[in-house]
Design goal:
alpha/beta, Hypothetical Protein Ychn, Chain: A, five-stranded parallel sheet, 7 helices
Length: 132
């Protein structure tokens, strides 16, 4: 039986971008390695779901061109589940009503709005937990 991973990204990328990128990279790698991976973006880590933020990061020259897009696409297409904190999104100005203008494309096809009950459930049912 394959291990089930739970990756939670909570760091503010404006404060510790490297930690957020490493979290995304580890989630993408676990997916590519064939593990069942749930990814939860909470606190200011929800900024990693912001389309403009990701585009600016791609264009910043800090990472090879397209690398962050590829990793995020691996997560959005291949994760067992992608979740975001409804409250954390709201604290960053994103609501279900304006999300289509702000979040990565087609977010409603791959993302679930959630909160503390989701974090508890996902962490309790996982074998491996990574927090960035």
């Amino acid at each position: 039986m394959s291990k089930k991973f739970f990756v939670k990204i909570v760091s503010d990328p404006d404060v510790d971008l490297r930690k957020c990128v490493v979290g995304v990279a580890c989630a993408a790698q676990a997916i590519n390695d064939g593990y069942a991976v749930d990814v939860f973006f909470a606190a200011n880590g929800v900024k990693m779901l912001n389309a403009e933020f990701i585009e600016n990061l791609n264009n910043s020259g800090m990472l090879p061109d397209g690398m962050i897009h590829k990793m995020m696409q691996t997560i959005t297409n291949g994760a067992a589940g992608v979740y975001c904190s409804t409250g954390s999104q709201a604290a960053n100005g994103v609501t279900k009503e304006n999300a289509a203008e702000i979040l990565l494309a087609d977010y409603d096809d791959w993302m679930t709005w959630s909160g503390p009950p989701g974090v508890i459930s996902l962490s309790a049912s996982s074998d491996v937990q990574l927090v960035y």
